[in-house]
Each structure stands twice: as structure tokens, then as C-alpha cells.
């Protein structure tokens, strides 16, 4: 591939849509803690002075939705009325109902291993070796910028920062390899007392420079820090927020395809979430094992049916072993039925709220216990002599990395 630019964006935990995602996942976690078999589809809407929590939930658990909502908003940092949104004074409306019994009869089976998918749909997972966490660099560093913004806001380094922020990073590529950063955008909410020049200097020194590798920055790199000059009104006062509106931020920043389904607020019987995590997990292990430099997995399901209706493996011409061998190894080593997904990644635990910001759910995609990939790599090495020879000749360390990567 010739020289090109690629850009991804991220948003902070205080962005209105991310507030909604975190509330939805806080509800999910609180329910799963009491009832791991609950069926949860929780949606949240936030606007100035108000949170509405709705959806369909079937469970034996009892959760104080109002207090849980206020606690989540408080943790994010909306604790003063002058921000236009305050954890202690906002109204909380609960409009939750039960999941349709028509769906239940297709999902719940006498044999748990035959549990059907909670809906039809397509899901994608992706991995690339351009970063140490096998994620695309543009989305990785966009996340790290807004994570750093939250860190210096909360630890008092820059106390005039407010919770809402957005980042965007444009990388330069040459023949598929990173050669530099072309542009950086960071917009952060702030209190009225800080001047624009002081804000820009502090953000550069305390957020951007500590995060972005200096070898990718040059005199041609463009920096846009609060380019409008003022960002006092933000959060739900500036824009309403909804669960599930940041699906590209939550995944690969546009570097891979997306099936369209959101994650937050959904229990793992919903393959929009669990199968997307599993697809990432499969792709990540293919790349970690040195079988390809890039890998994208597509899974598809029919509602009420356990087995995927299709499995697709795309390695973009970067594979080091026959495509058929990779596909067969995936089929042999990963149980991609809904029950198998839950067992493989331990998805019935209350682990979701911490994944609702900064893309951590797909970046890690190893939220609980994991199937060890020694089994996966041994399968490939045994069934494909040419791949074993390739690894030994190219890089013996690759075999060790394939066995140890998490």
C-alpha cells in the first residue's frame, strides 16, 4: 500500500454518550452480580438535569436504579450544578420492562450448551501487530489521550478540566507501516477561569507529550487543542447522550468493519456483544501466534440457533500459512456458540462497567478466564509443518510469544 493517512477518534468517560453507556453497564453488572442468568438489555438517555433508564430486563435480582445511576455519574465527575449536570440533583426516570417471552423460548434451552443466540446479526473482530496490544495505532492513541485527560483531571494536576473531552489522531503510513503522526485534535471541557493560551500549553505538556511517542512527532505534525477556543458548556448540557452511539470508538476506530450492534447494557446472551468479543479474541490470537500481520473475523448468527451461521477469516494477504489451515484451526479450537463464548471469556461475571469507556472491552477481549492458546498454537504446529518451519526460520521468539501472549 502506498503512502496514506488514517484517522480515528475517541471520547472521554464524561462524554454524554459514554455517560449513558456506563450507566447501562453499571445496571448490567449490578444485576449479574446477583443473577448471572439474567436477561438484560438496558438503554440510557441523558440530558440536562435528567437521566432516563429503560429497556427490557428479566431477572430475580433487585437493583436500586436511581442510586446506581447517581453513583455512576458521581464517579465520572459531574458533581456540581455549574456543570449543567449534577449527580445529586438530576432526575432519574426508570422505564424498564421485561424481555419478551417470545425471545426467551428461542434462547433458553434444556441443555445450556445449546443456548440459542439472542438475536440475528453479524459481528467483527480485528487485530493488527502495529501496536503491542494488537490494536490499530490511531484508535489506541486516541483512547490514551482522553484517558490521560481524565487522569490529570481527577488527580488534581489540571483541576480546571471538566469531564467531557474528545480526541482524534491522524497517522501517516508508508507501505502499511507507521512513519509518523500528521495531526492531533484534543478538545476538552474546562471551567470558565482558564484562558485559552494557558489551557493549550497545559494540555500539550500534561496530556499530549506524555502520551504520543516522540519519534512519531515532527515539525510537520499539526496540533489542534480546543480549536474553537472555548469549551465550557459540555456533557449532557451541551448534547444529549444515548447508549450505543459510539460503536466505532468502542471497537477499531474505523480500521475494521462493524456489524452495527452496540455493546453496553447487554448481557452475554446478546451476540452483538459476546460474539464481537470472541471474534476479537480469535483474531488477536491468530496475529499473536505470528500467522498473520492483520486479521479480521466475521461471525453471524440466527436468533434461537446455537451454532454460527458463518465464520469468515480475512488476513489481507498478510498470512504466513494457508488460509484453509487457519480457518480449520479456528473451528477446532474455539467454541463460538453463545454458551461457548460465555465460558471461554467468563462473560457471566459483573465485569462490564469498566469496559464502557476507552475501548477496553475489545482491546483486551480477555475479561475473565481464558482458554490458553498453547492448545491453539500446538494444533497449528502439529497440523502444518510448513508453518512450524516458517516460525523457526523467521523468528524462534515468535513461538514463545505465541504461547505466552494474553
Q: Using the alpha-carbon principal axes, give the shape.
A: flat
Q: What is the string of helix and strand elements?
A: EHEEHEEEHEHEEHEHEHEEHHHHHH
Mean pLDDT: 89
CATH C-level name of the largest domain: Alpha Beta
The DSSP helix count reads 13
Structure class:
alpha+beta
User: Main β-sheet: number of strands, strand sense, barrel status?
Assistant: 4 strands, mixed
Topology:
Layout: E1 4-11, H1 16-34, E2 39-47, E3 50-58, H2 65-76, E4 79-80, E5 85-86, E6 91-97, H3 101-107, E7 121-128, H4 137-154, E8 161-174, E9 177-190, H5 196-211, E10 222-225, H6 235-238, E11 241-242, H7 271-288, E12 294-301, E13 310-314, H8 323-333, H9 338-345, H10 360-364, H11 374-383, H12 385-394, H13 396-404
Family: Belongs to the AdoMet synthase family.
Subunit structure: Homotetramer; dimer of dimers.
Pathway: Amino-acid biosynthesis; S-adenosyl-L-methionine biosynthesis; S-adenosyl-L-methionine from L-methionine: step 1/1
